[in-house]
Design goal:
The chain has about 350 residues and is of the alpha+beta class. The protein contains 9 helices and 11 strands.
Length: about 350
């Protein structure tokens, strides 16, 4: 082998050695890269599996949501249809409500007007009942029939009865006789009185379901004298007015004079005039009952109150005697009346004896 060839081989060997070293280094680098890439691949493989599993789960969830969406869409369409139907019905109801509200306002206004009218009518009816009560019922009638105008209105009848300024007892007896001669007893006609059933405390409206007939009417004394007729109430009122006129305008001095409302043992009622006399004495003037406190000879007199009340009760024995007496004093100048005593014979006699 020549030197050149040896050099050549050496050079080739050196070159090849260098190449081998370079190749080894490259290989080592490639092996490191491969290992790194292998690890990366494994990581990516795991990530891929994770992502694929997640994708699968999401796909399942998506399909579920898709089905739910389809159901919700169907539900939405149904709800929308229901809403449109309800909305249409609401608009109709709103229109009906507006119409009803308008009618309600009109009815409320009418109701208010009717309530006001009812209250006025109630007030008028109450006034009518009050007026009828003053026409039919003792003692409420006293203000109407025993006032100064009515007392003055019986002047001609008092004077025609032959009264004397200085003789009160004889004058009262003549007044009694005049009434007995000129006024006949007649029963009253029935008066219809509304019966109050109940009143609403809020509206103050009262309701009346029926009427009751009260067979009583208290006439004015001038009416009784003029037409010459009346029951016990009317004749007692006339006697009271005539005696009052005599006291005030003829005799010139007033004495105590009382009207007695009497309840008999059988439940019937009566009216008479009581004249208390000094010393606990009593004179009773009762034209309708044909009774005057008098002597055996028929002259007017006065007796002790208890004795006279017993006599008077015996006079009414066919009606069970006198059970209860209410004595009223009437101020004819004002028309006002006062209950001075109420009770049986003993109670009234005790009052009259002490007054």
């Amino acid at each position: 082998m020549t030197r050149l060839t040896l050099y050549t081989l050496i050079i080739v060997a050196v070159v090849l050695g260098g190449l081998s070293a370079k190749l080894y280094l490259d290989y080592s680098a490639l092996l490191t890269s491969y290992e790194r890439l292998t690890r990366s691949y494994q990581l990516l493989q795991r990530d891929y599996e994770t992502v694929r599993n997640a994708h699968h789960a999401l796909e399942l969830q998506y399909n579920t949501l898709l089905r739910n969406y389809a159901e919700l869409e169907n539900t939405y369409r149904q709800v929308k249809a229901d809403y449109e139907a309800v909305s249409s019905a609401y608009q109709r109801l709103q229109q009906e409500y507006n119409n009803l509200r308008s009618q309600f306002n009109a009815l409320q206004l009418e109701f208010t007007m009717l309530t006001e009218l009812s209250l006025r009518l109630n007030s008028s009816l109450s006034e009518i009942i009050t007026t009828l009560t003053r026409y039919c019922c003792i003692p409420y009638a006293f203000e109407r029939v025993l006032n100064l105008d009515e007392v003055k209105a019986v002047e001609q009848y008092v004077l025609s009865a032959k009264v004397y300024a200085d003789d009160p007892f004889s004058s009262i007896q003549n007044i009694y006789r005049w009434i007995r001669s000129n006024v006949k007893y007649v029963h009253d006609v029935p008066l219809p009185i509304p019966m109050q059933i109940t009143c609403d405390p809020k509206t103050k409206l009262c309701y009346y379901s029926r009427f009751t007939d009260i067979r009583n009417y208290v006439q004015t004394p001038s009416f009784t004298a003029k037409y010459g007729q009346g029951d016990c109430d009317d004749q007692a009122v006339l006697a009271y007015a005539m005696i009052k006129y005599y006291f005030i305008f003829v005799h010139g001095k007033e004495y105590d004079l009382l009207i007695a409302r009497i309840e008999m043992g059988d439940g019937s009622g009566h009216l008479a005039v009581f004249l208390p006399v000094q010393g606990g004495m009593l004179t009773i003037i009762d034209p309708a009952g044909a009774y005057l406190t008098s002597t055996l000879l028929g002259s007017i007199t006065a007796r002790p109150a208890y004795e006279e009340l017993l006599r008077y009760s015996n006079h009414w024995s066919s009606h069970g005697g006198v059970k209860l007496i209410e004595l009223y004093r009437v101020d004819v100048r004002s028309g006002r009346y006062y209950l001075v005593v109420s009770g049986d014979i003993n109670t009234v006699a005790s009052y009259l004896s002490s007054s």
